[in-house]
Write a structure and sequence with these properties.
heterotetramer; A alpha/beta (556); B alpha/beta (201); C alpha/beta (363); D alpha/beta (418); D: 418 residues; 6-stranded mixed beta sheet
Chain lengths: 556, 201, 363, 418
Amino acid sequence: MNKPFATTLDVGSSLANHTGSWRTERPVYVDRMPPCNQACPAGENTQDWLYHAEEGNYRTAWESIVRDNPFPAIMGRACYHPCETSCNRGSLDAAVNIHAVERFLGDRAIALGWNIASSEERSGKKVLVVGAGPSGLSAAYHLTLLGHEVTVVEAGAAPGGMMRFGIPAYRLPRTIIDAEIARIVALGVTIRLNEPVEDIPALLEREGFDAAFVAIGAHLAKRVDIPAPDAGKILDAIGVLRELETGESMPRIGRRVIVYGGGNTALDVARSVRRLGEEAIVVYRRTRDKMPAHEFEVSEALEEGVQFHWLRTVTHMTGESITVEKMTLGPDGFPRGTGEYETIEGDALILALGQNVDTHVLDSIPGVEHSADGVVKVGPNMMTGHKGIFAGGDMVPSERTLTVAIGHGKKAARNIDAYLRGIPYVPKVKPALASFERLNTWYYSDAGKTVQPVLEDVRRRSTFEEVVGGLDETNALFEARRCLSCGNCFECDNCFGVCPDNAVIKLPDSAAIERSDSAGSPHSAPFAIDYDYCKGCGVCAAECPCGAIEMVPEEI
Amino acid sequence: MFQVRIHGRGGQGVVTAAELLSMTAFTEGLHAQAFPSFGSERMGAPVAAFCRISNTPIRTREPIADPDGVIVQDPTLIHLFDLFGGLSKEGFVLVNSSRTPESLGLSAILEKLPTGHVRTIPATEIAREKIGRPIPNIAMLGGFAAMTGIITLKALAWAIHTKFPKALAEKNIEAAQAAFAAVQHAIAGEPIAARGEELMV
Amino acid sequence: MDAPHIKAGQTMNVEAKETMNVEAGQKIKFYQTGTLTVGNRLLDEDLRTVQASEERSNAITSGHRACQGCGEALGARYALDAAMRAANGKIIAVNATGCLEVFSTPYPETSWTLPWLHSLFGNAASVASGVAAALRRLGKADIRVVAQGGDGGTTDIGFACLSGMFERNDDVLYLCYDNQGYMNTGVQRSSATPPTARTATTPAVGTAPGNIFGTGKDVPRIAMAHGIPYVATASVADLHDLERKVTNAMQVRGARYIHILVPCPLGWGTVTNATIRVARLATESGLFPLFEAEHGEIVASSPIRRAVPVEDYLKIQSRFAHLFRPTRDDAHLAALQAIADKNIQRYNLLRNDHGNDARKEAA
Amino acid sequence: MKTPIQLTPPKGPVELTLPKARQIEGSRAIAEAVGLCRPQVICAYPITPQTHIVEELSAMVKTGELMDCEFINVESEFAALSVAIGASAAGARAYTATSSQGLLYMAEAVYNASGMQLPIVMTLGNRAIGAPINIWNDHSDAMALRDAGWVLLFAETNQEAIDLHLQAFRLAEELSTPVMVCVDGFILTHAYEEVELPTPEAVDRWLPKFQPRQVLDPAEPITMGALVGPESFSEVRYLAHRKQLRALERIPELSAEFNATFGRNSGGILRTYKTEGAETIVLAMGSINGTIEDAIDELRRNGHAIGAVILTTFRPFPYASVAAALKNASQAIVVEKSLTAGMGGPLAADVTLALANTSTPVYSVIAGLGGRPIPQASLESIFERARDRELPETTFLDLHWDAVNQAITKELSWTPHT
């Protein structure tokens, strides 16, 4: 072809024109902190394992969970999932049913017998863990993965602590607890049961442990002095729950059992009592919305026929009834007596007013301090006043939940590891939060939360069968895919597509490749900006659904 | 060079007449040129067309100012325009009418030209009868052929054949023949009116 | 471990079960994570948009001189790449004078990678007709012709040629990239400029609201009035919809018209990163309805997903700033809302059946 | 060489194969000549007086007399040439025709076609330009776009119109440039006269299959019609100029080759008529030359040493050839059918420039505007006045001075504020 001068051109020649020089801001791929991850007391990388789950890579997803938490199946049932409370999707339609997916993965792991491989090289160090509760087992698990030899000594007859003795079977089947603890044991952790420890330093000395993690929980029920002239039956919640777990034949508590308290334990015990066929009445000094217990516990309890008396304090008890004083909430939200009294029929009273730590084992250890209620003082690295002895779980200052305890176990393990290796433990810096405002939610289609199956009411009043069922694979996948992947690229190709200058490059689709922008900051997105042509309009950042692109000023 | 100017109104086939005349001359082996007095093509508007016939190639293309023959297809034009302007002393005038030249007020031109050089024929009636439509142009050519002898009826017939589809061509040829005959009879001294009446039967 | 009794809400998932089984390797029938995004790693390649593919033709490639965030550069690549895929790369493009032509072909550089011809401002449709006629005559009918122009070259100066091309039903797909004004010459009013919009030739002075409230010039409907086989409106804010329409258009022969809204950051006074957002708001407010018509009859329209008042669309554009400052111009805002409401009613845009609900995809 | 009389009326292709003269209308003759060149795309829009040409072509396409051709009825002249531009760019031989206002309406596309070097051939049925609206012949339309970068050829007769179209396609495609064949409206387009059309075989040998210099093709994509800035625009324009000069060389060669092939001397730059020994030489374009030749014969008989130059190629303007043809004359008279108000005759201006280095005076005669007849007598009187050295620099032939003077008086009596 004989092309005329200037008026006819060879195609694509504008590639010689590098429009990148126009730029005053540059788009940069980032990985932000998803709110679910940030909220997880156990530090699970929720968004990451949902990412794998939504692809159907359940094993990879599960392995991502157990990097932080050895109890997916338990978590999926007993965790109060703050991840969902903070889930950005909650502001869109309904939070992702994260715990249900986690439970699906946990159950699948148990069903298919997935195991975790411990690292090969061993440190030769020995660590003692006192207490086979969630915190202790978590610590033992992580320490073993870190290459240390761990022995757990437990005063009780079975491992699990509050997982077993604090949470009723209808919420957490024992087979699940056994299976996930068995996996830890299979990893090489030694658990010695029925072995109360009296002198920790001596034990360390005797068996040559290099460090200890103490997590004996808080098992002493708080009591209030309630006059009961006719020696009415007064029990404590923890005791009752433990009895339910261990006692071969549960002695009858009463016909109409009054539970005094508004926490989760109060509701656990009330709902257990219903399952024993008795009437259960919860008495709480404040209003329903002020109850510490989670809302779903209250509503499920109501479904099961538990009665509630809010704004009441127990003042007196006889064999057949209790006297309560009516309360009102003051402006400060605290209850005040009204001087009016009423009688509630009831032949047993269970106190669920919280627990204290049994600290006598610690009193003997030099340097360990604790407050009046027995809460042990620890440093930021969770070490007590005594060098090499760390503590965690319900016995240290913090919210007393399963997941927090498990988180303590992990944190302590990392600090103990650092202590044993004589190097300081530096937690990696957390990226900025992927807040809802950073998302472009238009790109996500409408998909309501999947409801888990629930056991019919009659059977919830007679048996300890698990109330909430799990999701089948279809539903679990659906639920996983409701994840917005906040702050982390999920490869939707938007940036690749919406760039008016074709200035986005797809990187080879391999996890192995080290991805980073031209400034060298690493990111997980399999894309790169072609700064030769990028004019810095920012459309890619604006149209990134999950907020994984940031515009940063150019130095001019 | 023999120059003909044809006058009429839009829709009377004035331009076609000039073209046919040129084609006829061409088939006779002569050089010819025909062209209309250009204007927008509307029914009823006065129209003129021109035809030059020559033994040598024709170069000029100007409208004919000094015709040797004038064909008037519509007698109503006679007193509206100077139809005979520039007409040569030996020129011919053929008017489409069933009336006599005198009754058309053509006395002046009758005096100017040699006897027999001014004639009328009822071309419209002839056309109505032979073609079924009052288009006088071909009949006028037939009459003009008989009157001037510059083209033969045979050549005209061929030209008509070339120009029109067979059926229409044959009807037109009949019209031309009828007009040709009418003029011949007139030349033979028979009253044209009578012929006209006869033809109108 | 499933309990025998299932609560409401489960039923949906039971249905979904038949359609989804990843392990069985069947096609995923729905996905939430970015259903409306350009691509999606969870989806088969052929279900993703053309723009998601590294093999896309990039009909207009890097190095062009369009402004930052240019909607027209984006719209042109969207539409032409889709057309290229539909025609197996056999496309000839004819371009009217305007921004697109100027920023893409300043000697010695061109950004086009397909055969491309620019003749004049007002004759793109006719030139395309000529190209199509030649191809038909040369026995190259497998090569398809696309004509493209801005709103000026289409709805104003090129209008007669466009109408002629339609009326003859020439085998041309005409793409109008509507940025609602003469942007190349410095933002002057075109017949596609919306009422009240401020342009260099419709300044907002005192109580004058900028552009007049004329009767409007609804070129897609005018195109429909020609009874041509296919007419559609599309937007850079909905790529799936745009590509589907271009693909539909390429399935038929004859005159076809797609009117694509392409925001202009410069002319509209939007931040450069708002190009797609403002286009989305135009649609979600009802001011720019998305629909399809065949042989003069509307056959489909895209319902609004997240309805917004026209204000949400207007207030992020400085060309409408005078409607809000110094004082709120309620009368004109109401008049503009009325236009949107008319569209919503005419095209039934507020029905709730958009295909973006995972449940529907599952079903 | 006369045609033997045919008993059956001529029919389509059969007739085309007869290498014999026929008495047909100029428009029909041009249409058949264009048909012989096998255009692949024809776009038509009616405007008097070119209409008959495209009407004939549409019939030829319908009847199959002209095959493998797209006939497109467009909505305007602007569209007509635009369709041709697209067709040509896509590799098809494209043709259209127009007149007067139509040419002006497509003016933008006229420049575009030459700027893009597209070998389109267009017939221009020359007609005046309004206002006042006037449908009759003169050269105002061609003159209005004489500088649009097209080759402009003027036909004296319908025979030459035919021959010029055959040469135009060759020239256009060899150089990749558009060519306009100018034919006097009505005078030629509507005139019935004898013409001879070559056989299709002969034309196929004369005009090879169209090989576009550049073509839109997905197999070898290009960008046509780029924006060119100050850094290169001058070069583009210079190359356009050079191409026109190249055409000036090629036109006579093609004319000679045409003569050798078809035995007719037509086209070329210009022809002379009885210029040997002529003191006065009349120069004109188009059909008026017939009358001029008659006038010259007449005057020669009376001993007037006068001759004529028939200018065929007006753009590119053949300064050298014109100068050479006039070099022996003591005076030149340019008769032209156009007037540039405030300047005079555009053709006369070009001829004056051609004679810049000589002392030969150039007299301009503006004649035949808006279809005004140019009687031989009027021309003869002009030429005689010239012989007697009484001719003013510019003459307006047969101007009705009384009407003009009345108007001027009226004009002068009027002032805006009365």
